[in-house]
Amino acid sequence: MNDKNHSIDVLISEQELQEVVQKLAKEIYRDFNNQEIILVGVLDGSFAVLADLAKQLHKLGMDKIVIDFMGIDTYGSGTKSSKEPRITKDLKHDIKGKVVVIVEDIVDTGYSLSVLQAMLSARLPQKLATLSLLSKDERREIEVPVEYIGKHIPNVFVVGYGLDFDGKYYRELPYIGVVKFK
Ligand code: XMP
Ligand code: MG
Question: What is the pTM of this model?
Answer without folding.
Answer: 0.94
